[in-house]
Amino acid sequence: MTELNAAMVERYRSNFLKEVEANVEEGEWVKMCMQCGVCAGSCPLGNAWEHTPQKIFMMVRAGEREAVLNSDAMWMCTSCYNCIARCPRGLPITHIMHGLAHYAKRMGLAPKEQPTAKFAQLFWDNLVKKGRVNELKLGISLYFMNGFSEGIKTSLKMKDIGLGMLKTKRMSPMEMLGGHGVKDSAGFQKMLKKAQELEDKRISGSTD
Amino acid sequence: MADIKIGAYICKGCGLQDRLDISQLEMTATRDGKAVFAKTHDMLCSQEGVDMIKADLQGGDDAAANRVMIAACSRRAKVEAFAFGNTPTIRANLREGVIWVRPDEDEHKETTQEMADDYIRMGCAEAKAQEPAEASAEQQLDKHILVVGGGYTGLTAAIEAEAAGYPVTIVEKAAQLGGMTAQLYKKIPSCSPYADPQDTGIDAMIKSVEDNANITVHLNSTLTRTSGAPGRFAADISTESGSTTTENFGAIVQASGQKLYDPSGLSQYAYSGNADVITNLEMEALAKAADGGPIKRPSDGKEVKSVAFVQNVGQCSDEEDQLSYHSGWGDVVAIKQAMYFKDLNGSDCDTTIMFDNLRTPGAGGEDFYRSGQRKGITFTKADITEVIAGNELEVKFKDQILDNDTSMQCDLVVLDVGTLPNSGPDPYAPAAEEDEVVVNVDSILNLDYRQGTDLPHLKHGFTDSHFICFPYETRRTGIYAAGPVRRPMDLAQARDDAAGAAMKAIQEAENAGKGMAAHPRVGDLSFPSFRKEGCTQCKRCTVECPFGAINEDEEGYPVYNESRCRRCGTCMGACPVRVISFKNYSVETVGQQIKNVDVPDEFDEKPRILVLACENDAYPALDMAAMNGTEITPWARVIPVRCLGSISLSWVTDSMNNGYDGVVLMGCRRDDDYQCHFVKGSAMAAERMSKVGDTLSTLNLEPERVVIHEVAITDIQRAPQLINDMAETVDKIGMSPFKF
Amino acid sequence: MAKKEYSFYPGCSSQKGASSSNYLNSVNTMCEELDITLNHIPDWNCCSASIGYAGGGELPRLALSARNIALSEEHNPGQEIVATCAACWLATRESSERLNEDNSLMAEANEALAEAGLKLKNETPIKHMVEVLIEDLGYEEIGSKVKKPLEGIKIAGYVGCQTNRPFGIAGESFENPKYLDKLVETMGADPVENYDKKVQCCGGALAFSEPDKSQNMIKGIIEAAYDGGADMIVTPCPVCQMNVEVYQDQINATHGTKFKMPVVYYSTLMSVAYGRSAKDSALDGQVIPAKQLQEIADK
What's the ipTM? Predict the structure, then answer.
């Protein structure tokens, strides 16, 4: 258990709902769910969710902290916004799912081998590095995210797609060397660092 | 009395002239119908046309005409134009009844004209059989309104009626006004933003009633006898101590309220013997007792830190001895009471509402639900397994969303119990089985009526009313049920209901003063009377009147109470010796129409089908079908009746004897979800007609020649089809052998 | 029609050598024809799309969009921001709205921006290019430039998710938006009526992490286009375009289908209809060539 996670467990005791309201993006909306299940029925990957959003909201209220944060459910979100468009209560469900996923990651509770969790982290790391996404590096790191031999297999499988993209100039090997990025890299990094600090303080700093 | 002088007026407008031989119609009216004259007009409903008729009616006994037979559109059209006081005015329906339902082709011209001629003959025959309707001498105006019950509904009705200028007397069984509402800590909000519980306002209402000189209040009092009729009710108001005063009233509002279901018998909730398991009403007392401080639990006075609201206790259930229906307000009340804890015991007080189906009706209910969620009330979709008593209570349940068996600990459990109406005994309750335990219910009105002491019930003890068309009406004219005795309702609904009932009571007091009928034949002055020498004292009329309007005298003859009567004619249909009639509606007025239809002989191959259509639903449905141009067989002759209940069996047998080939009866839906405007008329007719098949068999006629159908006003396609079906039946089984 | 100017946020995937560089090429051509000037936001950064949430918390992600808006407000003052990428538009507009409704987040975002010497006023409307076409110009205006109507081509308008929900185009429904169909008609082609999978998700970023699940959805999108008799699919979103176009071989291999359905951007359609060359219209960017468009462009 990470130190932060331990601190959170201590602080909120059994009140996971309060914890979510305080620390998770749009978390104050969780209590407004009326359990109609339209989100569950609207999700394009609904069948793939270990717990549907409807159920996750109920689990949050029931204090099932570990089960929620350990779940790979939120990582199934494709950000299609169908649930948001249809929720009769106007809950920003997509954002709450993203928020819960992020919070799980922050607490060190997100499932370790979850592919989207990994990819999402790679994406963030990639964009943070230079301020813009380097698709080639992102792709390659994606293929190799499960180790070298898996990576070779995936790369081979993806070879034809890569070739198609290369031919149409929609992929460039030049990206391997440096590639695009923001010019004010220093300012960009300082800004992100500050934002990170402020957010960390908001979560851990609200301790007593 | 002056001789009957029928003036026949034939309209040529709306295409009638193009489709029909008008001079032929004029001749039919004067030659067959014996009209003293027949006049035509290009547009009879125009001012000029109407003035022409009015001129003919001037001059008292010397007037050119004292009966009006208008051959034009349906009796449901141009009602205002063709209103001539109490001069009997008959409408021969040539537009919706003939030209709009027949194709405009040469081959059909003959049968179309025959239809029109018949309707003229029928109109004249009816005109001849009618007498002008006049109010009886019985009518009486009494503006005094009696309100039974001094709770929220009764107080509202009293305040509203008094505000409209009608003096009110309230009779309340308890020692104080306010009823159940006075026991509430706060009420569900009744206006925007629907976010917090509101004060009930009951104290101010009580004060305004007490301070009002036009409202008299009798506490600790009940009605020991109520007799009479609208406009002349006499009520014995008796106190607990035994003194009785008698007062007269024009109309009555019964706001006798509700009682809540007793959960003692449901052992799974551990209600009996556990002070900390309480009902929703007891919860109100607990909140009141807290007096603005934190709510404490009854057993040991410990401040409540967590409370479980167990919803839907003993209601919406198939189980015996539980309520099969829902209160409608139980979940909103739980939200309100959970807010008590959030407000009085702090936002940290754990309030969980355990529901199966959460019902928060209306936009206000939905907002209130949201507000509850915002305040941090937990809503758990749960099947309750049991409540376990102890210092800390445990509620075991299955979480329906998480699909697991779990439980919660709490200091207090509040049970959401449902509502039962405070009704008197049902006059029509089926007789108890031999070994059945009969619970005696006290009468509320103690009506001195042939048909029982109280308002008839519909279901579950709630008072009967025509839910679709006349929700405030009961089956006792001039007595209006309001509030939760009529159906489960919350305060906001009870307020509207009370205002509505007050308006109805005022309307009926005024109508009774003029001798006019209440819904649905509002304004009708006719009333039933009987020929005593023919009466066999069979009591069918007194038993079968859906409104309990008819009492019996010592000899068993009927005593009509005109202002209780709705003028449906169910008594007329009941009478085996045909002695009951209205001036403007009788066995004769319809029988003469039937007789005056020209029935061609068998070889003409022109059958005749008699259609008796209820004027409330079936006849309008046929009118609308005509507007759509739906074809109806040219063999049909349609006669509107007040209600199927008024149909005399003789009309059916006479028409058969006269050579009609088929009879179609069309009335309203008659089951538990009835739509009959006179509640029981349609059902009575169906019962009476059930044996008509035997009668036909004895005449050697096929039983399928007489059919009875339930027809709703919306059956615009179906109603004409049913008539056309009979034409097909006749085609199949052949013409009647009874033609001359 | 007066010349229109916008502050343009191109986004990562439109950069040279990136997966939707062809999109930008055709957008540039289309804007030339429509007399629209796109002033790039100088030194813009990634918006983190909808997949940055694992590593990035709410505030860091908001800061990313805040920086772009602040740069736009500083360098392209008074100009509405336009994005061509659905995810860029959505992330930027959502961030802007979130910051507007939450003062403490706004203050924190500005505190972070100050580190880069920037300040966010957050007063700039954020539009998708489709909004510019339909709301600012209108069908009549964009139709008036058609020189070579795309006659005889049947096109399935695949709207997808993020240009449609939660904001969408004014007056359109979430369940059955019609604007792509109207645009197809305006260009002289035939829309597939009642295209079943018009707003079906293609998997988005999960095409990378959950390829099987995503390709199942993509399969349905293409199948429905074939069922509707489509010659090609048109889309306003780079992720949709890429996902639906480039996995067809893999889907064919897995499911035994024979998909070869071109997937083009609306800007490519419009550039061809406006009489521009195949290269200007970025038809060379098609992994699955759109032959009918090619033929019209070469005429």
Answer: 0.95
Rounded-to-integer distance, Cα B597 and Cα B226, Å: 48
Nearest CB to C287 within list A85, A164, A180: A164
Fold of C4-129: Glutathione S-transferase Yfyf (Class Pi); Chain A, domain 2 (1.20.1050)
* CATH 3.50.50.60 boundaries in chain B: 145-257+422-429+441-514, 261-419
Name the 3-class secondary structure at C190: strand
Is C touching B (3+ C-beta pairs, cut-off 8 A)?
no
Does the pLDDT value for residue B358 go beyond 80? yes
Identify the band that residue B493 occupies on the pLDDT scale cut at 50, 70 and 90.
Answer: very high
For domain B145-257+422-429+441-514, the CATH superfamily is: FAD/NAD(P)-binding domain (3.50.50.60)
In one-letter notation, the amino acid at residue B454 is D
How many beta-carbon pairs under 8 angstroms link A with B? 32
Question: Hey, of B380, B402, B403, B408, which one would you mutate to test binding to chain A, going by the most A CBs within 10 A of its CB?
Answer: B402
Query: Which residues does B699 contact at the CB level (< 8 Å), separation at least 6?
Result: B656, B657, B738
pTM tops 0.80: yes
Task: Give domain B1-132's CATH number out of 2.60.40, 3.40.50, 3.40.1130, 3.30.70.
Answer: 3.40.50
DSSP for B659-717? T--EEEEEE---STT---TTTTHHHHHHHHHTTHHHHHHHTT--GGGEEEEE--TT-TT
In angstroms, the CA B196 to CA C205 distance is: 45
Q: Which residues have C-beta within 8 Å of that of residue B85, sequence separation ≥ 6?
A: none
143-202 in chain A: CB under 8 A from chain C: 157, 160-161, 164-165, 167-172, 174-175, 180, 182-184, 187-188, 190-196, 198-199, 202
Within 81-120 of C, beta carbons closer than 8 Å to A belong to: 108-109, 111-118
**A32, A34, A59: residue with CB nearest B402:** A59
Q: Which residues are paired to B67 by β-bridges?
A: B6
Contact between residue C34 and residue C27 where contact means Cβ atoms under 8 Å apart: no
Task: Output the tens digit of pLDDT for each of chain A's 208 residues.
Answer: 688 999 898 888 778 999 999 999 999 999 999 999 999 999 999 999 999 999 999 999 999 999 999 999 999 999 999 999 999 999 999 999 999 999 999 999 999 999 999 999 999 999 999 999 998 888 888 888 888 888 888 888 888 888 888 899 998 888 887 788 999 999 999 999 999 999 999 998 754 4
Domains identified in chain A and CATH numbers: 3-111 (1.10.1060.10), 115-196 (no CATH)
Nearest chain A alpha carbon to C56: A124
Q: Give the nearest partner residue to C21 out of A110, A170, A187, using CB atoms.
A: A170
Which CATH code, of 3.40.50.11810, 3.30.9.10, 3.10.450.120, 3.30.428.10, is assigned to C147-298?
3.40.50.11810
Note the pLDDT tens digit of each residue in B624-681: 999 999 999 999 999 999 999 999 999 999 999 999 999 999 999 999 889 999 999 9
pLDDT score of A207:
44
DSSP 8-state code for residue B561: -
pLDDT in tens, C75-115: 999 999 999 999 999 999 999 999 999 999 999 999 999 99
Is B438's pLDDT higher than 80?
no
What value does the mean pLDDT take over residues B470-479?
A: 92
Residues 6+ apart with CB under 8 A from B654: B591, B594, B595
Are A125 and C55 an interchain contact pair (Cβ–Cβ within 8 Å)? Answer: yes
Structure tokens at B172: 């309340």
Closest residue to A124, CB basis, from C55, C204, C217: C55
**Would you say residue B437 has pLDDT above 80?**
no
Instruction: Say whether B370 and A32 touch across the interface (CB within 8 A).
Output: yes
Question: What pLDDT, on the 0 to 100 scale, is given for residue C2?
Answer: 64
A 28-57 residues inside an 8 A Cβ radius of B: 31-32, 34-35, 54-55
Interface test with B, best of A29, A61, A65, A91 (most B CBs within 10 A): A61
